[in-house]
Amino acid sequence: MQGVGDKNLSVLFVCLGNICRSPMAEGAFRAAAARHALDCEVDSAGTASYHIGSQPDLRAIAIARANGVEIADQSARQIERNDFFRFTHIFAMDEANLAGIKAQAPRDGTARVALLTAALQGKQAKPIADPYYGDDALFASVWDEVSEAAEALAAHFAQVGVDLRL
Length: 166
Ligand code: 4NP
Prior knowledge:
By secondary structure, the protein is α/β, with parallel strands linked by helices. The protein is 37% helix and 12% strand. It is built from five helices and four strands. The protein has helices at residues 21-35, 58-66, 83-86, 95-103, 136-160, and strands at residues 10-15, 41-46, 89-92, 112-115. The protein has a four-stranded parallel β-sheet. Helix 2 (58-66) packs across helix 5 (136-160). The longest helix has 25 residues, at 136-160.
């Protein structure tokens, strides 16, 4: 059976709606992957179907743009069965996302599934809270959290390669 070690690095970020946290994580990780010269497919998805086809939340677009990252071209989608074979790694934003992902993981799926903040070794893997009903300040703190974790993740991949386990 093909395992993660035989594949090209490919990373999927997952939240609930795929319009706030995971689009920011996707954008932040694309920037971090470029800094670390990683050759990597990157995408994001939601566990829920509410926002399929939507652009990221305007507050997410604004805070990403203020940090030099463009995410307005993303379009929300729901995680699907093939993602567990297509991606080497799937990162959840919070425990509910993690549980939702694991609940629908095919038994023979090859993707490694973890919390994004597990990349912050030495710090507690604290979930990234849903900012949807919050204000701009909450979006700014979510941006900081996903950026810090994305940078740590890219640095780990640069060191360990596709076989990284978190
Ligand atoms: P996200 O935030 O999971 O970070 O994209 C949310 C977006 C929409 C909803 C909840 C969370 N919603 O209930 O519509």
